[in-house]
Amino acid sequence: MPISIADLIELLGGPEAAATLTGVSPDAIRKWRAAGAIPSRHWPAIMSATGLPMEDLPRPPVESDTPPGATAALVLADGSVFWGRGFGAHGTSTPAELCFNTGMTGYQETLTDPSYAGQIITFTFPHIGNTGANEEDCEAAQVFARGLVVKEDPTAPSNYRATTDLDVWLRRMGVPGIAGVDTRALTLRIRDLGAPSAVLSFPADGKFDLAALAATAAAWSGLNGLDLAAEVSCTQPYEWTGGTWSWEHGFATPETRKTVVAVDYGAKRNILRSLASAGCKVIVVPANASANDILQHNPAGVFLSNGPGDPAATARYAVPAIQGVMYMKIPIFGICLGHQLLATALGGKTYKLERGHRGANQPVKDLVTGKVEITSQNHGFAVDEKSLPEGVEVTHVSLFDGSNEGIACKAKKVFSVQYHPEASPGPSDSSYLFKRFVDMLA
C-alpha cells in the first residue's frame, strides 16, 4: 500500500531533512505535497534513504481506461501513458530508455543496429514502413531495439526491393511497435526532460496493467553503468569477406591485402563491408578479446566498433586490450563506442548526454580541414574533451551542441570519431576515413 506524502516526509525527518536526504530543493518538497505524488527521478534517492520498496512510494494516478481503438500503450516511468495501435509482435518489451531518431529513411538499418540495444526508438519522421523490409538491409541478424514508436500506421511497402512489410518483419523479429502516437509531443518531452525509462505493451488479449507497467519502467536502472556490448557481440572470432552494396552490382567481392582485426562491441555489417572494400582482410573478434587474442592474428591495424551501453562499464575489459595494442604501435581506428573506449584508453573520460544524437542528418566540423560533414549518429554518451591528456588532439566537434566528435594521437598512430562514417543509413560524407585508416597500415 503506497505511503502518503505527509507520512513519507515525516519518515524522512521533516521537509528540510527530506530535501537534504533526497538531494532536492525545499520547493520540490512543496510540489510533492501539491501534486500528491513524487516524480520517478526522485524514487531511487527516497528508496535509499527510507528502505521503502518502490510499490510503497506515492505515485501519480495511472489512467486505467483503454481508449476506443487502442491496442498498445507506451508507459513511462512517471506513469504517463501514450496510447496507440499495436503492430509487430504481441507482448511487452523489457524496460528501456526511450529515445528519438530524426532520420527520414533507413528504419530497418536503424532497428538492427546493435547500438540501439536497451532502447525504444521514436521516429520523428511520420511515415515509417513504406519501403517494407528485406534481408539485404539488416545491419545484424536480429533487431536490437526493444520497441518502435511511430506516428502513422505502417502502409503496404512501395519499394521494388521489399520482400515483406514492416509489420510481418517485426513479428518475425519478436519486437512490438505502436502507431498513432503524437511523436512530436513525445520528442519534445525527451528533448526538454531527457530520455525516460519506458515499457511498450501490445498484449494479445488487449488487457493492460498500467500501474505494473509504470512500476517496471521506473524500477529499471537505465543505461548508466550498463555493459551491453558483451550481450550483442559475437562469441567466436570469424572472417568477414563481403564488400559494400551498389545499385548496379549488389554486394562487392573486393580484393583484400592488409589484415585488420575488428573488435565487435556491436559492429554493424556495413562497417565490416566498408573495411573490406577499402582492401582489408577483416577478422572479427568478441568484445572481451584480450590484447593477446587480437595480436595473435598479426594485424596491420585494429578497428574498434560501435556498440551500446555505458562506455565506462565496457572499458573495464576493453581498455586493457586497447592499451596492449597501442603498446605494440599498431594503428587503431575507432567509431562510436570504439571512439569512447579509445579516448578512455588514452586517459580521457566519458559522460551521459541528456538526449543523445540519433539520426542521419547531424552536422560535424572537421577542425583540421574546416569542412562540415553531414553524418549518421547514434550515441547517448560522449567524450569529455577537458579530460583528454596532452598529446591527444580534438579533430571534430558537433555543430549541434559542441560536444566531441573525434580525436587523434599521432604519437600512438590512433584516431577515432563519434559518428558513423559507414552510414547505412545516412550520407557518405565521411567514408574517406576508411581510406585514411588503410593508408596508415603501410
UniProtKB/TrEMBL annotation:
Its EC number is 6.3.5.5. L-glutamine binds at S115, G307, G309, L337, Q340, N378, G380, F381. PROSITE patterns: GATASE_TYPE_1. The keyword Nucleotide-binding applies. Pfam families: CPSase_sm_chain, GATase. Residues 1-258 are annotated as: CPSase. It is an enzyme of class 6 (ligase). It comes from the Bacteria. InterPro entries: Anth_synth/Amidotransfase, CarbamoylP_synth_ssu, CarbamoylP_synth_ssu_N, CarbP_synth_ssu_N_sf, Class_I_gatase-like, CPSase_GATase1, GATASE, Lambda_DNA-bd_dom_sf. It catalyses: L-glutamine + H2O = L-glutamate + NH4(+); hydrogencarbonate + L-glutamine + 2 ATP + H2O = carbamoyl phosphate + L-glutamate + 2 ADP + phosphate + 2 H(+). The active site is at C336, H420, E422. Residues 70-201 form the Carbamoyl-phosphate synthase small subunit N-terminal domain. Pathway: Amino-acid biosynthesis; L-arginine biosynthesis; carbamoyl phosphate from bicarbonate: step 1/1; Pyrimidine metabolism; UMP biosynthesis via de novo pathway; (S)-dihydroorotate from bicarbonate: step 1/3. The keyword Methyltransferase does not apply. Keywords: Amino-acid biosynthesis, Arginine biosynthesis, ATP-binding, Glutamine amidotransferase, Ligase, Nucleotide-binding, Pyrimidine biosynthesis. Belongs to the CarA family. Small subunit of the glutamine-dependent carbamoyl phosphate synthetase (CPSase). CPSase catalyzes the formation of carbamoyl phosphate from the ammonia moiety of glutamine, carbonate, and phosphate donated by ATP, constituting the first step of 2 biosynthetic pathways, one leading to arginine and/or urea and the other to pyrimidine nucleotides. The small subunit (glutamine amidotransferase) binds and cleaves glutamine to supply the large subunit with the substrate ammonia. Composed of two chains; the small (or glutamine) chain promotes the hydrolysis of glutamine to ammonia, which is used by the large (or ammonia) chain to synthesize carbamoyl phosphate. Tetramer of heterodimers (alpha,beta)4. This is Carbamoyl phosphate synthase small chain.
